Structure to design on (756 residues):
């Protein structure tokens, strides 16, 4: 009785958190996954056409009923404004389809039976088998197109997978760039953060508190503010260039803003606390007796570091590095503000598809692939990096 | 003692410049001996060990190892093995890797490493655990590995800082004997720190009793027990009954002490004390004879207050010469152990079993 009441109480206490996790994490994740492969536009806007195309075998031209249905439904869609979504969706599939659909919808009154002939007369593209194949393919509930496009692949009208045209093949290099930038940001953060954390861990409590505050104050400052600060500092006429010229290191101002360099500087600065904090806590918890033991066994200082201190602080490196890497992969504001066009990361394109072209399918597909690739990379890191497996180092 | 392996000369250690944790320490260690530093916590024994290991620097004075001055020689160049209280096995290495580490650090050729590791593991009877991680071992196994690790590269001197402190009593006693036997087999010099007097008595060739940063007495276990140099040593090593009194008469090593209640006791004395000086009398409980017809140099009327049963023997708490905490040890079958509380008895002990020693300042 008491146990079940305790269980009930425990369930009640975690219920709000559970609801928050479901509502803010699991549901959006599933919605995003569905958006990446969902294909509702043709089915919803052109239900009769969908029905008429069901029995068409994809050869020659579809039956007259399909031509009649497509004219009627396009006109209806134009009145209901649904034509926008549909034409955007199909235009993404094949450029130029937006104009064709709008033109057809407007021309409803001028068209008469037999619709097959009058439609082809309106625009010869309606007599193209590939256009009808494309329409028929998109009557399905799901489509792999967004995921394929995100991987620089595309679907031929016949439905097979092919390389995307060169001008559209930007996403694999984008993913590569995202992971390369994240990798180097992680490496830089660990290399810079490790000695900082070590120094903090050796200071007296008082000095460590001050040092910690110096690490934490930027951490508590908004990313936007910190990134904007770098924007000002790295400008052509900014303080950094003024200093470099004042010291006669350079004659002409160096271009720093809108470069990869600026992205690295600002991202490392923003993310450094995420590696310092876990490292500091691991180092603080490391019993100095291990280093004494190593010394008594004949290990000089650098061997004590390499063979004992470093491996025993690896969990901190792994935790901090993982956190920095994960956050870097999703970075948006910093590269957008201080980076050039060739320094943008996946998140920039997710925002671009969400806000600019209203192509949520692509945005969702990019997000899903980013999540998947990050998951795979972290999984591989767990197998390769020793610190990940060395979960608990308890003195 | 000529050719000592380690010497401390006037070694003083102070952290704050005022309180001296170790004060003017002079100590010489014989080659191959098992020396225990015994004392309560804060007595300076661990600090002394740390100075020898190279983890603390003496504030003044000189430590030598094999005739060479150790001041400013870093710990890793001293070639002194060490066993720590919490084992300090490297958790990210297997047992075998822990043993390989010191061999690599001392530049032992690759071909010789494996046989040495094997021998060391056999020495502590753990060859089957070589591929385990330390966290997978019991406390006793971990400490055996730690001992093997400290010995594997063949140091002439091994320091042990309360190595058995974290183990339960039975395991502790087992490992005490194991370490003692290893010491005998290998002939290595061991400096052992403990606050457990029975551990010190069991294992040591000599014991240095520390108190307030000074060595109170440096002697063999038997001598320490039988002839404690002062009241601290007498009370720290083994049980004893103590009486405060003044030296009433002295003739060489024999003396008479007058207790505060006026009784006179015949005792042995070695300390350099004059008649009239305050002294402490120490009588070991097992040297006290008890019964109606005992006689010895010192005989006192006693009243039985309590019988404490301890299996193989009993302790009797008695009122003797004004003290209510006088303890006598008797065999379990002694008639006095079944006597009712309040029974009048006679206690007696010879003058040699009763030592007059200087009180603790």
């Amino acid at each position: 009785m008491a146990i079940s009441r305790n269980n009930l109480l425990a369930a009640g206490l975690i219920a709000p958190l559970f609801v928050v996790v479901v509502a803010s994490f699991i549901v959006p994740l599933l919605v995003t996954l569905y958006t990446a492969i969902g294909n509702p536009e043709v089915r919803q806007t052109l239900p009769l056409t969908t029905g008429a195309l069901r029995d068409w075998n994809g050869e020659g031209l579809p039956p007259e009923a399909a031509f009649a249905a497509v004219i009627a439904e396009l006109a209806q869609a134009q009145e209901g404004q649904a034509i926008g979504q549909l034409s955007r969706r199909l235009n993404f599939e094949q450029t130029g389809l937006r104009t064709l659909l709008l033109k057809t919808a407007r021309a409803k009154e001028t068209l008469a039976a037999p619709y097959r002939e009058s439609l082809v007369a309106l625009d010869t593209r309606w007599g193209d088998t590939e256009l009808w194949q494309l329409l028929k393919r998109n009557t399905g509930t799901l489509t792999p197109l967004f995921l394929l496009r995100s991987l620089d692949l595309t679907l031929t009208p016949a439905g097979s997978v092919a390389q995307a045209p060169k001008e559209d093949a930007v996403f694999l290099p984008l993913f590569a760039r995202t992971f390369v930038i994240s990798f180097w940001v992680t490496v830089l953060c660990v290399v810079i953060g490790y000695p900082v954390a070590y120094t903090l861990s050796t200071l007296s409590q008082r000095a460590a508190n001050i040092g910690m505050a110096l690490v934490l104050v930027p951490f508590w400052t908004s990313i936007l503010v910190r990134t904007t600060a770098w924007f000002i500092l790295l400008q052509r006429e900014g303080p950094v260039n003024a200093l470099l010229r004042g010291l006669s290191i350079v004659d002409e101002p160096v271009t720093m803003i809108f470069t990869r360099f600026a992205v690295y500087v600002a991202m490392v600065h923003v993310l450094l606390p995420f590696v310092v904090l876990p490292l500091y806590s691991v180092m603080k918890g490391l019993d100095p007796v291990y280093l004494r033991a190593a010394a008594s066994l004949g290990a000089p200082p650098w061997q004590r570091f390499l063979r004992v201190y470093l491996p025993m602080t690896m969990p901190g490196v792994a935790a901090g590095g993982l956190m920095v890497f994960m956050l870097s992969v999703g970075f948006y504001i910093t590269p957008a503000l201080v980076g050039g066009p060739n320094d943008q990361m996946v998140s920039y394109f997710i925002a671009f598809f969400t806000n600019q072209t209203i192509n949520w399918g692509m945005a969702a597909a990019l997000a899903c692939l980013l999540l998947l690739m990050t998951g795979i990379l972290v999984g591989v890191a767990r197998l390769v990096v020793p610190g990940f497996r060395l979960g608990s180092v308890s003195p | 003692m000529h050719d000592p392996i380690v010497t401390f000369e006037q070694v003083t250690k102070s952290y704050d410049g005022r309180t001296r944790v170790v004060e003017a320490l002079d100590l010489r260690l014989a080659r191959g001996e098992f020396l225990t530093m015994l004392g309560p916590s804060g007595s300076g024994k661990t600090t002394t060990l740390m100075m020898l290991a190279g983890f603390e620097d003496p504030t003044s004075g000189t430590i030598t190892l094999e005739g060479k001055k150790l001041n400013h020689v870093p710990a890793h160049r001293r070639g002194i093995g060490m066993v720590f209280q919490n084992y300090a096995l490297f958790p990210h290495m297997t047992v075998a890797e822990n043993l390989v580490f010191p061999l690599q650090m001392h530049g032992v050729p690759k071909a010789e490493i494996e046989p040495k590791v094997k021998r060391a593991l056999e020495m502590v009877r753990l060859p089957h655990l070589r591929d385990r991680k330390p966290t997978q071992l019991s406390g006793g196994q971990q400490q055996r590995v730690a001992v093997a690790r400290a010995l594997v590269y063949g140091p002439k001197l091994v320091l042990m800082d309360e190595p058995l402190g974290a183990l339960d009593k039975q395991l502790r006693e087992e490992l005490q004997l194991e370490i003692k036997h290893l010491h005998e087999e290998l002939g290595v010099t061991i400096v052992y720190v403990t606050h457990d007097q029975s551990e010190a008595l069991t294992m040591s060739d000599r014991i240095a009793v520390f108190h307030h940063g000074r060595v109170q007495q440096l002697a063999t276990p038997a001598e320490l027990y039988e002839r404690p140099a002062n009241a601290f040593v007498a009370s720290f090593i083994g049980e004893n009954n103590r009486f405060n009194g003044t030296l009433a008469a002295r003739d060489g090593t024999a003396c008479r002490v007058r207790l505060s209640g006026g009784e006179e006791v015949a005792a042995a004395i070695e300390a350099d004390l004059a008649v009239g000086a305050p002294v402490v009398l120490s009588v070991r409980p097992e040297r006290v004879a008890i019964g109606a017809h005992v006689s010895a140099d010192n005989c006192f009327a006693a009243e039985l207050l309590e019988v404490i049963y301890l299996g193989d023997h009993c302790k009797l708490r008695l009122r003797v010469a004004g003290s209510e905490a006088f303890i006598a040890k008797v065999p379990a079958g002694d008639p006095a152990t079944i006597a009712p509380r309040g029974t009048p008895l006679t206690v007696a002990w010879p003058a040699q079993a009763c030592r007059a020693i200087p009180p603790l300042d």
About this structure: Residues 137 and 332 of chain A are 35 Å apart (CA to CA). The mean pLDDT of chain A is 89.
